[in-house]
Amino acid sequence: MTKQTLTQLEQHELFLTRHIGPDEVQQQAMLNVVGAESIDDLIGQIVPESIRLDRELTVGRPNNESEGLDYIRNVANKNQVFKSYIGMGYYPTLVPNVVLRNVLENPGWYTAYTPYQPEIAQGRLEAIINFQQMSMDLTGLDLASASLLDEATAAAEAMALAKRVSKAKKANIFFVANDLFPQTLDVIKTRAECFGFDVVVGPAHEAVNYELFGALFQYTNREGQIHDYTELFTELKAKKAVISVAADIMSLVLLKSPGEMGADVVFGNAQRFGVPMGYGGPHASFFVTKDTHKRSMPGRIIGVSQDTRGNRALRMAMQTREQHIRREKANSNICTAQVLLANMASFYAVFHGPQGLKTIANRINRFTDILALGLASKGLNPVNSAWFDTLTFESTNLVAIKTRAAAAKLNLRIDSDLRFGVSLDETTTREDIAQLFDVILGEDHGLDVTIIDEQVLAATESSIPASLQRQNAILTHPTFNRYQSETEMMRYIKRLENKDLALNHSMISLGSCTMKLNAVAEMLPISWPEFANMHPFCPLEQAEGYTQLINELSDWLVDITGYDAICMQPNSGAQGEYAGLLAIQKYHASRGDGHRNVCLIPQSAHGTNPASAQLAGMKVVVTACDAQGNIDLDDLRTKAQEVAEHLSCIMITYPSTHGVYEETVQEICEIIHQYGGQVYLDGANMNAQVGITSPGFIGADVSHLNLHKTFAIPHGGGGPGMGPIGIKAHLAPFVAGHTIIKPGLESDNNGAVSAAPYGSAGILPISYMYIRLLGSKGLKQSTQMAMLNANYVTKKLSEHYPLLFSGRNNRVAHECILDLRPLKETSGVTEMDIAKRLNDYGFHAPTMSFPVAGTLMIEPTESESKVELDRFIEAMIAIREEVRKVEAGLWPADNNPLHNAPHTLADIMDPEFDSRPYSRELAVFPTAVTKANKFWPTVNRIDDVFGDRNLFCACVPMEDYE
Ligand SMILES: *Cc1c(COP(=O)(O)O)cnc(C)c1O
């Protein structure tokens, strides 16, 4: 036996061999098929010489898993987890362990994609509709969205909605009560500036003094006060103002709902329903409005429809409204939202049920009462006269209090040299209250929590005035009343999970979405308390671990992107676009070029591009693509010339949305720069660039990265995401800032784009681990293998389906587009039929009809082995054969396995199946693999039109369960 060297033996342990699907034997076999001598030969054929990096990445050597985990453990240990009483929208919470293990830490939930294919997504669709039902019950309004990115961006969306629907057409003022959380106001101001709205901030009652289209109030406010706004809202509505309320979700369990007071929109962070603070995110914001505003609703809504059997089925309502974010008609640019976290919050409500939630909320309120009474008995009365969980005090002793707080390892909310606040939460205990007495009063107070509790019980007055106490029942739906035992809960979660196809069943080849492996070693750290339980506004010196993590990750991303700096604030790709465009606009303004407001966008762009440009207050001019899908340079030059000194920027995607490396990209950058414009390069396709080329190297000025695509954060069934932007040095002073925590890059007065300074910092450990484990070598190899896999699939499938586009040497980059339109002409079989038929074969459909209608875009990623690719190819070829039978007239166009797909158990149990011209076996077991590992779609094809005509976006009525 030949002995291996130690280095060879160590290599075997490297994570990169686990991340990359094909082993060396498979790689060689695939190279043979595509006709390349080596990986380098293949990459040489694909990537134009002029854009190829002439250096290796410098992110370090690959780590094995235990080494990487040891390292990040040390980083985590540098975070000091103080007990947080800061509040301001973020609260300690107890994640039910049954939800932690079975949802957050379960690939069946976290690796799923956005439910665009509802027949294989009924589980998470039900969980989201529970979220919507919960949101409606608590807010007292009747149409809820499926989650927005955070409370502050939801506020900006509420303002935009108010402008769209307000009948006060001439008004330009949006009024904001001055007791709103400052981070929310910050994001509102940024957005208002783009839209040209006037934001007026003042005491709530002064709202009536203005000609306004909308107004926003916080309930309970930043000091903990709760107001009954019923009369104020009536007056404001007489002025045709649209009223929004930022509400605390836990308080709503006990409080009169804002809907009852007359609010039109209610939103807020759902974090404290069982989602860790994570140093700022990810968390879901709920957003609820009136049914009359459904066409103006930002983000997604899940609705009820029926399948071809007439059975109830869930799907995204008004999907076509949203699928391309509707360019200039966009309501918002929200694509990736916060589905996984919305699901966690809804499961929290399902698990506790209305009684459990009331107990939790009552306990929080009782502890607050005890704290207030105890302190009052010592002469320290709260500033607020009514409260749910938050008290604000003025004290000349604040210096001493702060010192004692630090010694006790707890954080209070510090408003000024005199003012401080305390917010309690479901983790608060008697001991905590006793400790708070010690910290606030000093040791000799002699207060006893049990005795004060008796006094609170005996008191006639309540801290929640009678007029503000909730009178109606919440969460009466059976779903919230039958899973209070852990056994029932575990099975409910599992039952839903079983309905959904995620990466733990088969590959999800969604072009542009990069559904690669989300490795366990990358995921583990996000549950550690040192990362999970940090408040985003805790003093920076407590967050040394996060600071190190963010700095190291930024340095790596600088190396990978070729930019000079990274801004971590945007919490989705589309938010990154918005943040990047704002930086461009501020840069222009700083040079006296404030008039530059035109954004050129090629036809083939992702829908979020024009939507983000709209949000940033820009005018979109669309430029043409040629027959190859490349940007038409002549048209680009003409348009650039036409807009001339009004040119702000171009937004391009590279490799193009069509999956090819355009040779002219550097020329495009030059043309734009020549006219004084900036180049925004959409980084969604970074998986074809890492280690091979980079946006900075190509000549772009700014890009967002989708950490939830290229850098291994899982899709979570439609979020979370992170969309940090890389920028060249000249743009760095213009990136997003924050009112509370100063990330440091930006100049002082830059507004924020997200509620938290570093966006959804809680999931950054995933991308950090991804890069650390792969190292320079593994990152580059991943890109190469993504291209090998894509070209292998392309080669195999192009013998059966026409390929829409290819680049140099007839190669594609990391994805390919199959053109199904010719098949449709000869057979009547649509791209939808093929997508649904793939479900019968156990696969999720590739991206459908983007960027070209009637096509499928396939992106296999580097994580899929040749074995899995071959299974997918086998399915696609078998489907092509089925289409042939339709073409040949062997099967009628309206009765064949494609038209009737997906097939369910109900189909094959149906005696009428006998009249179909194909067998039951072909329907549900078309290949040997499906027999061994069958995925059963739980509903037949869903009727979208029916659902939109009969819009119903809540849990289905009880009778349907009987
Ligand atoms: C995914 C994607 C986006 C949007 O990213 P989100 O995180 O979903 O907002 C933008 N552009 C392209 C090309 C994409 O594929």
From TrEMBL:
This is Glycine dehydrogenase (decarboxylating). The gene is gcvP. GO terms for molecular function: glycine binding; glycine dehydrogenase (decarboxylating) activity; pyridoxal phosphate binding. Pfam families: GcvP2_C, GDC-P. The lineage of its organism: Bacteria, Pseudomonadati, Pseudomonadota, Gammaproteobacteria, Alteromonadales. Transmembrane segments: none annotated. The keyword Nucleus does not apply. Its EC number is 1.4.4.2. Belongs to the GcvP family. GO terms for biological process: glycine decarboxylation via glycine cleavage system. The glycine cleavage system is composed of four proteins: P, T, L and H. The modification N6-(pyridoxal phosphate)lysine is found at residue 709. Keywords: Oxidoreductase, Pyridoxal phosphate. HAMAP family: GcvP. One of its GO terms (cellular component) is glycine cleavage complex. The glycine cleavage system catalyzes the degradation of glycine. The P protein binds the alpha-amino group of glycine through its pyridoxal phosphate cofactor; CO(2) is released and the remaining methylamine moiety is then transferred to the lipoamide cofactor of the H protein.
